[in-house]
């Protein structure tokens, strides 16, 4: 046995909601530099005048540290944590509840179609609520500062929210919502449904028990599937959200222009950091999430116990 034992009482929706947000923040703290490297590689080639050229994950991070300072890989972390507390809490924390809502009464278990529908629903709900935090996070991550003496466009996270709303209108904070809903519906289905199915099969076949090894294998598989299917939409989303007003008329225009200028391989720019990021993020998030659910349920049961 590794970690806390499963609780006899199923976790409540509130426990799942809080646990998912907290677990996602912990995973973000540990993997954020990989996400920043992914963003830099995805936007590379968009601006021919860009002086810094990145090569690979490690090369990107080393170049950023050398040219922009030691903390540059964590640029946008505060917005990233804002995003996870609202985004992951909804898309992961509410997944089981939505899946149960869609499952017909009397059914033994949810079908794959029901799970996909639940993943799409919570993914779309999460993006609608958390889109401004994602826009600000991407802007910070994509912003190149040539040396410590150079200033950024935004002095801080809250200033970024205010500046974008002032210069681009409130709708600027929801820029790229459609490609982000598409991307996160795909990612959420790949992550949640794959994790759900792999974990269920491992437990049903008695290959593993409901503990760390099972959670690790399920999360790793979920991360790989999510990266493969979501990378093309992720690249378009990143470029569109980071673009100045007028550069692209729509996400479709962004996609067509990218293919015309850089070819179809541009859809998989930053694939390695995307997989390293999503794979490691999924493992850390799901393992932490499972343990947090059990810990929070123990706390709740102790509080409700008369002794």
Can you describe what's shown?
- Helices cover 70% and strands 0% of the residues.
- The chain has ten helices and no strands.
- Helix 1 packs across helix 2, helix 7 runs antiparallel to helix 8 and helix 8 packs across helix 9.
- The longest helix has 34 residues.
- The radius of gyration is 20 Å and the shape is globular.
- The two termini are 28 Å apart.
Largest sheet: none
Query: What is the N-to-C succession of helices and strands?
Result: HHHHHHHHHH
Low-confidence stretches: 146-150
Gap from first CA to last CA: 28 Å
Beta-strand residue percentage = under 5%
Any idea what the shape is?
globular
**How many helical elements?**
10
What is the averaged pLDDT score?
85
CA radius of gyration:
20 Å
* Helical/strand content category: mainly alpha
Number of strands: 0
Helix fraction, binned, reads over 70%
């Amino acid at each position: 046995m590794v970690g806390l034992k499963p609780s006899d009482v199923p976790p409540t929706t509130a426990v799942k909601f809080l646990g998912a947000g907290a677990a996602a923040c912990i995973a973000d703290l540990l993997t954020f530099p990989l996400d920043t490297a992914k963003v830099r590689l995805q936007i590379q080639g968009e601006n021919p005048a860009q002086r810094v050229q990145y090569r690979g994950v490690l090369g990107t991070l080393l170049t950023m540290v050398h040219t922009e300072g030691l903390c540059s890989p964590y640029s946008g972390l505060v917005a990233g944590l804002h995003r996870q507390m609202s985004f992951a809490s909804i898309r992961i924390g509410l997944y089981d509840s939505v899946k149960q809502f869609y499952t017909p009464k009397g059914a033994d278990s949810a079908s794959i179609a029901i799970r996909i529908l639940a993943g799409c629903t919570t993914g779309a709900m999460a993006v609608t609520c958390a889109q401004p935090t994602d826009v600000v996070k991407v802007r910070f991550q994509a912003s190149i500062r040539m040396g410590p003496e150079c200033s950024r466009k935004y002095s801080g996270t809250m200033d970024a929210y205010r500046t974008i709303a002032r210069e681009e209108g409130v709708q600027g904070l929801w820029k790229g919502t459609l490609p982000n809903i598409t991307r996160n519906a795909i990612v959420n289905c790949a992550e949640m449904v794959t994790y759900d199915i792999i974990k269920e099969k491992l437990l049903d076949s008695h290959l593993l028990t409901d503990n760390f090894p099972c959670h690790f294998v399920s999360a790793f598989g979920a991360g790989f599937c999510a990266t493969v299917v979501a990378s093309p939409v992720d690249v378009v989303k990143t470029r569109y959200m980071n673009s100045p007003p007028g550069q692209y008329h729509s996400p479709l225009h962004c996609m067509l222009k990218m293919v015309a200028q850089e070819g179809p391989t541009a859809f998989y720019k930053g694939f390695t950091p995307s997989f390293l990021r999503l794979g490691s993020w999924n493992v850390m998030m799901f393992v932490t999430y499972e343990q947090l659910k059990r810990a929070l349920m123990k706390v709740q049961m102790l509080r409700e116990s008369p002794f």
